[in-house]
Structures are given as structure tokens and as C-alpha cells.
Design goal:
With about 325 residues, this protein is α/β, with parallel strands linked by helices. Helices cover about 35% and strands about 20% of the residues.
């Protein structure tokens, strides 16, 4: 069976899959990045993981992968195939596309930014399926964004398009590592909510999920923390929709797991702020932590001009080969 390799590299772990011609995930595996051993070890681990997946696919399906797609965090030069910088992995200027191509027998390799890659999947076959314009915003440790236009994701002239987390929503506010003050992600990311709630409740171990539960129970302190985060998020999103006019606004990441505890007040807050703008549909992301692998698979198939028309999640196991070691 024709298939491609899809890799989603995170700060602490890697998710991988073999994706079939219809986009279905034929095999899935996970492994730690080993970042505690340094950036060279991380790169070596990626190459080894991809090579093992290639061998597994060739044994299981009778032919090697036709292409590969890989999503990585940080600053990415997708056109040159270079992972420019990732603070949490410690690397700089890694020619990852060339390295993977050599390791995989000169197959074509697509390299993409993790958020834009996940956004590609959400836009094409997830929560934004069928929308000609969408904005995907995951709320995690930070806040990023993917701008979707007619089935593709816009990277920008220098690869920085979609960085909504660094829109200033509270001028003169909390300092941000980017050098500005009052950036959106300092108020509305999952980590920002966790910090604010830990301080408000006096429990240094409390996090955003705990805050959401306290909101649901009517805790006044939690309601105040949550309201501040939702208001900041709404301010940032209205700026984005004023500039981009998306048809669908997709919210993902850890904070979105609060469900309607987040989405009900957020939709109300955005609605109150818009004037002449068209209010987009505001929906939760649909693909969860498979979005990166699905998007990497889409990028790989795009290289072959055989992008799948639909995707289905799932996995199969081999009876003739030993799959790569999986580390959770």
C-alpha cells in the first residue's frame, strides 16, 4: 500500500504515523525526544525514528514510504527546509529536510511549523473543513495561530504569520519574553491562567484545569481569573478577525478542553466587541493531539500532488514486522 511518513516533534515527545493514500493513519507510535541529552541527540532521535518507520512500512506494506512530512516547534524556514531555532529543543539552523531526505533514501520531505501544520489538518479535515478562510488558535503554554486560506496555511514573508500570542492587548502590562509588555499569551494562555489561579487560590500546584473546575462550581476567585483571561483573549481575537476576516475561528490547546466553560463566555465576549466586522463561527478544535501528525501527512501527500480528499483516524498493527519502539 502506498503510504507516507508523518512526524510531529514536540518539546518533550514525538508522535509519528504512517498515512495511507486516503490519509488514514495506518500505524502510530510515540517516543521521547531525549532533549535532556542535547540538540544533537534530538536530531539523531528524529532521524532514527523516521528510519525505523520507513523499515516498518516497507516490511508491513511491501514498499517504502513515498514521502515524509515533519512538524517542529520554534522558528522554521519551510522553503529552505531548515529548523531555524527552538528554545525547548536547543537547536539552531538544523537542515532537517536534507537530513531526513538522505536518511530515508532521497524521498521528498516537507518541513513545517507545528502550529501551522496542526492548523492545516484542522482546516482541511477538522473543525474548519469546507471553510475557505479560517484561523486556528491553540491555547497552550503560549498562544500561536495558523491562518488558513483556500486549503493552505499562510506562513508570511519571513515565517512569522499568525503569531497572535504577541499581539499587545494590555499596553504596559506583564513583560513578555519576546521583549514587549502586555502580550496576549501573558494573560490568556493555559500557562498564564494556571499561574493566575495558583496565586489566587494559594496552591502553587493548581493549574488551568483546576481553575475551570472552580469556575463551574461558582468560586468567585476563579470566576475573576477566568473573566480576565476571556476578556484578554476576546480582545486579541477581535484584532485578528478585523485583520483577517475568517469564516471560522478554531480554538484548540489545553485551555479549550474546558469546553463550554470557555466557549460560552468567549463567544459572548467577542460578540460584544464586534461592530462592523462579521462574526465568525467560533468552534473547538476537532482533532486533538493527532492534528500535528495528520497535518504532516497532508504536507507529505501534497509533495506528491495526491493530497487526500478525506482523513480518518485509526491505526492498524502488523503481523509481519516489529513496529518501532514506542515510548510514552
Amino acid at each position: 500500500m502506498r503510504h507516507v511518513i508523518a512526524l510531529d516533534v514536540g518539546g518533550t515527545g514525538m508522535k509519528a504515523a504512517l498515512a495511507g493514500p486516503g490519509g488514514e493513519l495506518l500505524h502510530q507510535a510515540r517516543r521521547a525526544t531525549g532533549r535532556e541529552r542535547g540538540p544533537e541527540a534530538v536530531v539523531a532521535g528524529i532521524l532514527d525514528f523516521a528510519a525505523e518507520l520507513r523499515a516498518y512500512g516497507a516490511d508491513r506494506f511491501g514498499e517504502p514510504a513515498r514521502a515524509a512530512g515533519v512538524a517542529v516547534p520554534g522558528i522554521v524556514d519551510a522553503e529552505q527546509g531548515v529548523a531555524v531555532y527552538a528554545a525547548n529543543l536547543g537547536w539552531r539552523d538544523v537542515p532537517l529536510r536534507a537530513l531526513l531526505g538522505d536518511r530515508l533514501g532521497s524521498v521528498p520531505v516537507a518541513l513545517g511549523h507545528d502550529v501551522r501544520t496542526g492548523g492545516l489538518a484542522e482546516g482541511r479535515i477538522g473543525a474548519g473543513k469546507g471553510a475557505d478562510r479560517f484561523l486556528f488558535v491553540p491555547l497552550g503554554t503560549g498562544i500561536a495561530g495558523a491562518i488558513g486560506i483556500d486549503g493552505r496555511v499562510e506562513a508570511g514573508a519571513h515565517g512569522f504569520a499568525g503569531e497572535i500570542g504577541h499581539v499587545v492587548v494590555r499596553p504596559g502590562g506583564i513583560p513578555c519574553p519576546c521583549g514587549q509588555r502586555g502580550c496576549l499569551e501573558r494573560f490568556a494562555s493555559a500557562s498564564a491562567v494556571s499561574q493566575a489561579w495558583a496565586e489566587a487560590c494559594g496552591d502553587p500546584e493548581a493549574d488551568a484545569a483546576d481553575c475551570a473546575k472552580a469556575v463551574e462550581s461558582g468560586d468567585a476567585r476563579a470566576l475573576a481569573v477566568w473573566r480576565d483571561a476571556v476578556d484578554a483573549l476576546a480582545d486579541g481575537l477581535v484584532t485578528a478577525l478585523t485583520l483577517l476576516d475568517p469564516r471560522v475561528l478554531i480554538i484548540g490547546g489545553g485551555l479549550a478542553e474546558a469546553g463550554e466553560t470557555l466557549f460560552t463566555p468567549l463567544r459572548d465576549a467577542v460578540r460584544r466587541r464586534v461592530t462592523f466586522q462579521k462574526l465568525p463561527e467560533i468552534v473547538p478544535a476537532a482533532l486533538g493531539d493527532t492534528a500535528g501528525c495528520l497535518g504532516a501527512g497532508l504536507m507529505a501527500w501534497d509533495l506528491l500532488d495526491t493530497a487526500p480528499s478525506a482523513l480518518h483516524t485509526g491505526s492498524t498493527t502488523s503481523t509481519t514486522a516489529t513496529p518501532p519502539e514506542v515510548t510514552t
